[in-house]
Amino acid sequence: MTENSKVILAVLDGLNYQTARDCMGHLQALCAEGTGCLYKLQSELPSMSRPLYECLLTGVKPVHSGVVHNKVVRLSRCQSIFSLARAQGRVTAASAYHWVSELYNHAPFDLVQDRIVNDESKNIQHGVFYQWDDYPDEAVIADGEMLRRRYNPDFLLIHPMNIDDTGHHFGVDSAQYRNKTRSVDIYLSYYLQDWLDAGYQVIITADHGMNNDGTHGGILECERAVPCYVFGSAFSKKADVSFPQTAMCGLVCELLGLEHQKELPQGVLHD
């Protein structure tokens, strides 16, 4: 088990690997300097949002979790990063789409009751949740930074939705989709160095990609190939490493120093 670290996991909804590589200039610059490393992951199936939130945060494939489509509205039945962290005395927080709240805090989502959360008994103890796909990414990331500064969480999830929303309107091979990705790269640049200076290990990934039909869910490369950027002193930054999306949960748990039985990727962390 690694030394205890704090972790920020940013899930950029609907971001295709190639678009991230081509358009996220700040993140690519940090990788070129050796501060970070970009890995290519393959999303589990179906390449849909709610099933893959559950996959990323529990390490369980959709076919095994039972969250097999976006209309499965219930609490998760699996151990998650949030539940493991809370049970072991860590502070959890999320600035995220309301489906995350439905999986780990309360279902169905009640806009008035569940939007702003400060409750140490919940899996996500401090949260700002939204239910609008066009809720600005800049606001989601700023909400996450507010939670970080105010509550100093051990684990913080930041989950903006506009790249996915834009892809649904214009498709993956569009100026709008690429430009939205460039915008998120800029928003992340506002805070990323502060996160690293505060001792956080930072992972920036996506749930799934996007196709030219403005949808996702199947097996096309553009739908399944997603980026995984890692930044921080705990990472080996070895370029020849590969690991499945199901290992994200175990990776975060290991960084947090949690007791867990989740799948752990090999070679991603320093020996």
TrEMBL record:
InterPro entries per UniProt: Alkaline_phosphatase_core_sf, Phosphodiest/P_Trfase
Pfam families found in the cross-reference section: Phosphodiest (PF01663)
Signal peptide: none
Superkingdom as given in the UniProt entry: Bacteria
SUPFAM superfamilies: Alkaline phosphatase-like
GO molecular function, one term: hydrolase activity
Coiled-coil stretches: none
Protein name per UniProt: Alkaline phosphatase family protein
Provenance organism: Candidatus Avisuccinivibrio stercorigallinarum
